[in-house]
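1st attempt posting a full record on here, be nice pls
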Amino acid sequence: MQTTIIKPTNKLQFLNIQEIFNYRELLFSLVKRDLQVRYRQTIIGGLWAIVQPLTTMIIFSFFFGHLANISGGGVPYPIFSYAGLLLWTYFTGAITASSASMVASSSLITKVYFPRIIIPIAATITGLVDYAVASLVLIVLMFYYQIMPSTQILLVPLTLLLTWFLAMGMGFWLSAINVKYRDVGYVLPFFIQLMLFITPVIYPSSIAPNFRSVLALNPMTGIIDAHRAMILGGLPINWGALGISAVLVVVIFITGSAYFKRVERYFADII
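the predicted structure (as tokens):
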């Protein structure tokens, strides 16, 4: 009987696309499992994908749009904020789910070999379904405010793709660190709250011209600005800011996958 021994390598490794493709059926199974358990034993089920961003939009519209009189950049504030919240809700949900994904799948990790990096990837894919469902509200708002999209809306998948890769990159970092240090689950909500206020979700980036260079260091700044402009049509796309965001996304994704691959050999022992 021949025994196969899998030895870890000390070489710097990154995401292996071929390896992910070979285990694509497992990836699809994990995504299907996450979708099935996400809203299990809830009264309204998948409608929570709409309720969360819609409720947040109503609250923001009252406090920031009505009381604080923050400009919507030439468009009604409710749809301005919802266009940003749509992508922001996916991003924060994806990194929250992926950060806890390794610990949640500990029983699977300790029993069978497969590319561990599939687990946080699957956690980021599930939220794309919620994004699609919540987009229905955006369509209704566009009809209500009589906003006609331009051909720029065809570029929306670009911002969604960048957000997905950013969520995967941060998910690689957070899920790997969370295996050893469970503090991640406590720190992450505070980090997300802080990020909300330094990301142009509830305000246009033009409101703080003196801090644009600082805001540009946040990869979600250029992505959300572009996402909103592509959907609403009447706003200009800041390609420079989007380019900076794209570079930051690539850096976070590559370093995150490299770190994950470097430490994954220890997961089964300490998880």
